Amino acid sequence: MAVPLPRPHPDDVRIACAGLLGGLLLWGVGLGVRGPRDPIILWDGRWPILVPLVVMAGCELLRRTCPRTGLLIGVAALTVDTITQGNLVTWVMFTDLVYAAVLYSPPAAARRVLWITGVMTVVGTLVSLATWRKPEALLVGVVVGLVAYTPAATGWIVRNHRDAAEAARLRAEQTALLAEMDRTQAVTAERARMARELHDMVANHLSAIAIHSTAALSLDDPKTTQDALAVIRENSVEGLAEMRRLIGILRDDSGDLEPTAAPTLDGLGSLVEGARANGLDVGLDTEHADSLPAPVELAAYRIVQECLTNALKHAGPGRVTVTLRQRDGSLAIAAISPYGRQDGPRAPGSGAGLVGMRERTALLGGTFEAGPEDSADGKIWAVHVTLPVTDHPQGDPE
What we know:
By secondary structure, the chain is an alpha+beta fold. It folds into 2 domains: about 10-175, no CATH class; about 265-398, Heat Shock Protein 90 (2-Layer Sandwich), CATH 3.30.565. It contains 10 helices and 5 strands. α9 (about 295-315) links the parallel β1 (about 280-285) and β2 (about 320-325). It starts with 9 loop residues before the first helix and ends in a 10-residue tail after the last strand.
């Protein structure tokens, strides 16, 4: 089954038509390359001039799709043209075929065309000098250079510029793609940071509100209802203040809200007092250096805050103990709470708190473990976190 030839490029069709019309115009006015009495002419008459002209114009249709085939046929057509009176347009179209062969052929073929035309120019010059031994013989080399080597060299230069422009375009696209990936990762990281902060800052107060509002609705006791409403109001006010501080962080350039400083371990006492006010029996034991890296202090504060929130929502009756110890270049955090169903109302949980604690720990290169354990006092829920205080490969845990 024959393979159809590729469709010529529209620009090649225009070049072929323009060359053919130009050659016919010169032929019509009787303008040839050689006179009718030139001894090199073997095919006399005006009509033979049209044969290489038409063939060369047909080769122009192949200049992009089959450049090497077009050049080979063009060489044969130019050879025939040399034994006729000749047509200048035929020679001009041949130079375009040489240029196209270097520009559109595969790299190896383009290099071969460049080398062959260069060798032809040198050999033509030397043979002409050796044969005629006259300075005018150099004109043969000049003609060969103009017809063959010059368009080949021009095509090679244009090809190099084109390849360099394509490489620059690919590099620009790759840079843009990497920039977009970095932007997407930065947005994702910022969204995760905001989600962690929003959860850690507000979940504790909302959990207390949910538990005490459920108690107020389920118990027909004015004193209990009054106490629950007091706790609800206190947590609502504190939660609103936390939310405003979070908005201040996000809009620190608005002029109406000041960004808040990141919480530190010095605020654990107030955090525990708030948990006790919400009805949680909490014991806190800390032993650490006076000054720790800010990322470590923030991560430790948020982890303890989330542990107390989870204990308020899910822990059984009993005491919750939180311990912080600094040993051998790391800060160890342990939060132990009774494991089991509460007698009173519970607040729903989504598991986002454990995910947030694990993310904060991973950002600092620490270790995180959470799950039920057996102890002398029964089954407990234990959270163990280790945060290095000297090496932070991932930067700020927020």
